[in-house]
Design goal:
There is one protein chain. By secondary structure, the chain is an alpha/beta fold. The chain contains eleven helices and 14 strands. A seven-stranded mixed beta sheet has the order 4-10-9-8-7-5-6, sandwiched between helices. The chain has a four-stranded mixed beta sheet with strand order 1-2-3-13. A three-stranded antiparallel beta sheet has the order 11-12-14, covered by helices on one side. α2 packs antiparallel against α8, α6 packs parallel to α7 and α9 runs parallel beside α11. The longest helix is centred in the C-terminal third of the chain and has 18 residues.
């Protein structure tokens, strides 16, 4: 293997709901879901059955033939998300979704500049990494002079940038995940929508991590009451099966060859995507994410210890400590058998459990977290 990952000495071999087991049989509470990917829980029986059934019929053929599963997925996504009049382009990953959204915006406006935001992460492919605020991830090939990083939640800086440059697009996360669980304020979202309308720019909402019910709304930006032009989705969309997409406002014109993907929207991926949406809808997991997230947020604010701030919404929470959280995460993992996440802010612990998490499971985490914090 080309060694580019920092890997814990732990081998998960099975999962059940919000738990995974390693090769030795130890059970772990999963409050990270593999970067917010596990939305409906590990090995959900309806999810497993749908993929098995589809694999026994046809697993893949290219987009040169009809695939009714794609239409079913698009309609169900519109129904559950509230974006019924948008159309769907299917691909494989969040980076690919953002890549295609940026490309579509540039086709539409015939312009090249892009505004992104300080602390942003949009992926590692060429255009996606160019709008990611981390020079360490950008090869010389990816560094573009026409990408401008603006301070988040600074309306004056936003207005000044638009006065100086007419971008083809502005790309923003519903909540910055890797950036440390930092969210745009509703007023800033609304100002951004107004500026894009005034200057003919495309508003791209990256909901790759913050979408699919995680925040207690289907999309995080829905709390602000704004309507984007393009919305990118991935991670929780397939509960571990690679699938992603771009929701596209009806004013965008499609034509053959405009976008494309070999594996995007294949039969197995669509089966996984349909199962996830049906489970989210039928088990009311968005409501659960909202109520459990509110409970966890309040409880974390009551935990005694070196905590600076608790941020986020629903089941996308960040706990900023007064010190780097690396050792604390290892203690939670190896002493209390609880998975948590980190971020670019080394002091921030990310909590991104499956949307099916229960109150008892959260209480177990809170008790363990308090125990570990007492040692600092």
């Amino acid at each position: 293997m080309f060694n580019v990952y920092s890997v814990y000495d732990l081998e998960p071999v099975s999962g059940d709901g919000c738990y995974i087991r390693d090769a030795s049989g130890t059970r772990y509470l999963d409050l990270y879901g593999g970067h917010a990917v596990i939305s409906v829980g590990h090995s959900h029986p309806k999810y497993v059955a749908r993929i098995r059934e589809q694999a026994g019929q046809i697993g893949f053929y290219s987009n040169s033939v009809k695939n009714p599963l794609q239409d079913r997925l698009a309609h169900l996504l519109g129904e559950v998300s509230g974006y019924r009049d948008y159309r769907l382009f299917l691909c494989n990953s969040g980076a690919e979704a953002n890549e295609n959204a940026l490309k579509l915006a540039s086709f539409h406006t015939e312009r090249t500049p892009v505004f992104s935001f300080q602390g942003a992460f949009h992926g590692r492919t060429s255009a996606a990494v160019s709008v990611t605020d981390n020079p360490a991830l950008q090869a010389p090939l990816n560094r573009r002079e026409d990408v401008r990083f603006l301070p988040l939640n600074d309306t004056a800086a936003l207005e000044q940038a638009f006065a100086e440059t007419k971008p083809c697009a502005v790309i923003i996360e519903g909540i910055q995940g890797i950036g440390g669980v930092v969210g745009p304020q509703p007023e800033f979202f609304q100002a951004l929508r107004q500026q894009c309308d005034r200057h003919g720019a495309v508003l791209i909402l990256d909901e790759v991590q913050s979408g699919y019910g995680r925040t207690g709304q289907f999309f995080a930006h829905q709390y602000a009451g704004v309507q984007p032009d393009l919305i990118t989705v991935a991670k929780g969309m397939g509960n571990g099966f690679p699938i992603a997409g771009v929701l596209i406002h009806p004013r965008f014109q499609a034509r053959p060859g405009l976008l494309g993907s070999t594996f995007g929207g294949n039969h197995l991926a669509c089966a996984a995507g349909l199962a996830v949406l049906e489970i989210i809808r039928d088990e009311e997991l968005i409501d659960n994410a909202r109520s459990q997230g509110e409970y966890l947020h309040r409880a974390l604010e009551q935990v005694s210890g070196p905590i600076r701030e608790v941020r986020g919404t629903g089941l996308m929470l960040g706990v900023e400590l007064e010190f780097p959280c690396t050792d604390l995460r290892k203690q939670l993992l190896f002493e209390h058998h609880i998975f948590t996440g980190s971020s670019a802010n080394k002091n921030t612990l990310r909590i991104l459990p499956p949307l099916s998490i229960t109150r008892n499971q959260l209480d177990h985490f809170l008790e363990s977290f308090q125990t570990v914090l007492q040692q600092y």
